[in-house]
Amino acid sequence: MDISATSDRFAVVIDDESIILAGMEIMLDTWGYQVLAAEDVETILAKLPGRPVPSVILSDYRLRDGWSGITAVRAVREAVGMTVPAIILTGDTGAELLTAARTEQISILHKPVQPNDLRRQIDALIAAAA
């Protein structure tokens, strides 16, 4: 575990590909995060009550059941009542996504994302929100 990470850091991760979800969960855990990870937004929203406010939300862009990363982040933010820093991980480069992300104050990282790049982005977002 990274000694610079604090145990009060809590990440929400949403990705409908189980192997990616598991990898993200393991990586964030090694960085010292508590992690709530699920393949769908409904599971996240059901498990969120009683947990701390997330430090960061990480989501794939294209999710199941008509959800997008944008709507997923919006739902989690509404559930906790705060504009939590968020990153969408995607291969999509469309102008519509970029405009929506900018409007919702969500960062975009294009796949493939290197772990060090992701960590720097997470750290920067959390620092800016503090």
Structure notes:
The chain has 130 residues and is α/β, with parallel strands linked by helices. It has a single domain (10-129), classed as 3-Layer(aba) Sandwich (Rossmann fold), CATH 3.40.50.2300. Helices cover 44% and strands 18% of the residues. The chain is built from five helices and five strands, in the order E-H-E-H-E-H-E-H-E-H. A five-stranded parallel beta sheet has the order 2-1-3-4-5, with helices on both faces. Strand 3 (56-60), helix 3 and strand 4 form a beta-alpha-beta unit. The longest helix has 15 residues, at 115-129. It is globular. The relative contact order is 0.16.
Poorly predicted parts: 1-5
How many separate domains make up the residues?
1
The chain-level structural class is alpha/beta
Strands of the widest sheet, in order across it, are 2-1-3-4-5
Rg of Cα set = 13 Å
- What's the CATH architecture? 3-Layer(aba) Sandwich
Distance between the termini: 23 Å
CATH topology: Rossmann fold
Mean pLDDT: 93
Percent of residues in helical segments? 40-55%
Strand content: 15-25%
Mass-distribution shape: globular
Topology as H/E string? Answer: EHEHEHEHEH
Task: Record the SSE blueprint.
Elements: E1 10-14, H1 18-30, E2 34-38, H2 41-47, E3 56-60, H3 69-80, E4 86-90, H4 95-104, E5 107-110, H5 115-129
Parallel strand pairs: 1-2, 1-3, 3-4, 4-5
Output the keywords:
single chain; 130 residues; alpha/beta; Rossmann fold; 5-stranded parallel beta sheet; 5 strands; disordered N terminus
